[in-house]
């Protein structure tokens, strides 16, 4: 004890009042706290070492408070309960399921697209042993992409397809495997930053490719590409500016003229379409999202897209194109470093199979179902929520209001979705405190805070989550 006291500048309790010295002497030995913990922790799946560390932490905290002037000594039972609470917080997994009440369907910080039940079931089915690289027909080693590859090519109308862990990885891999040491021409208006400060010029550098910029920020014509092609040019690259828009006086060639130019000049045309708008392309509200099949149909040699955005699957980067080019991509040493694990592959395969039937895709892939829900249905659900929350202890104000929510995930910038939200305020908590109380629920509830109110959007809360969601909101309002 003396050592601890010396750390606080009061050797042996010198300078403490008589009550303080008495409080220090009254602190129970740690084994007494552990004995009590062994009783109240029954059924807790927490390691004994974690419990012991928590008991020490609580004991040191009480010592510090006494040395700072407090004179009360908690009883053994109280100390054990505090230690158990600390142990529970430490035992809680960092990654948890949450209820997304923000209305942002592809919320990057919340894991982007929620998986379809078929994809979840597929991932669980292979979580133990699986035929990841085992051919069940021959009993010999099989191909890891044997399920996903053919589905990518079939869905996009390409000769062959493959997949890696994300679209940025796919871009690096394709540039490195097909263009390393040579030049690739891209419009200045498409030198995107994809999030987390990863910029296209940096990806070029990592891939060992020389970037050739053409055009201007707002205007790039096919003649600009043509004028930049030299004997050292490997490819023309078109990048969909998924996370921003340049409006006004703008111009950029589509896939047809670029594919034609690439064919005439003997270079590759690589089409990076980003969001993977297989089902949404061309539909009202989604006109700015390119159809990943359009570039291939126009003559693109390779197309790249994400799996966890508008495709509605797990994080992945899908690559489709000519069979010989896909073989070169898969033979590159970097391909192994970027390969998908068995659970992601199973979930991606299940998602791709759903896309083969558009009607099922819109019903069963949550991201698509959320994007396709009607304003009338959102209004109805919001009003039901408000009626069930009305009169809750701690509630000061509640109303249903029209609002807008972004799609998220770097998709459809500037094209927010119309929605209806429940706006509420608590009696004795600020909006930030109420949002924090919602996050402390089990499962945590993530809301939006705007104009001094907490907003709850039904678009991203599934009907199966509603009972737990409403119970959590009531507890948060009561500051429970």
Overall 3D shape: elongated
What is the CATH architecture descriptor of the largest domain? 3-Layer(aba) Sandwich
Task: Tally the helices.
Answer: 20
Provide the spatial order of strands within the biggest beta sheet.
2-8-7-6-5-3-4
Query: How many beta strands in the DSSP annotation?
Result: 13
Mean pLDDT: 90
- Roughly how many Å apart are the termini? 36 Å
Largest beta sheet, briefly?
A: 7 strands, mixed
Overall helicity: 40-55%
Overall radius of gyration: 29 Å
Oligomer: single chain
Account of the protein in words:
With 480 residues, the protein is α/β, with parallel strands linked by helices. It has three domains: 2-91; 99-107 and 372-477, Aspartate Aminotransferase, domain 1 (Alpha-Beta Complex); 115-364, Aspartate Aminotransferase, domain 2 (3-Layer(aba) Sandwich), CATH 3.40.640. The chain has helices at residues 2-7, 18-26, 30-40, 48-67, 76-91, 117-125, 148-156, 167-179, 200-207, 222-228, 255-265, 292-298, 323-331, 333-337, 342-355, 358-364, 366-372, 375-389, 431-439, 466-477; strands at residues 99-100, 160-164, 183-187, 210-214, 233-239, 268-274, 302-306, 317-321, 395-405, 417-426, 445-446, 448-450, 453-456. α3 (30-40) crosses α4 (48-67) and α8 packs across α9. The model is unreliable at 1-12 (pLDDT under 50).
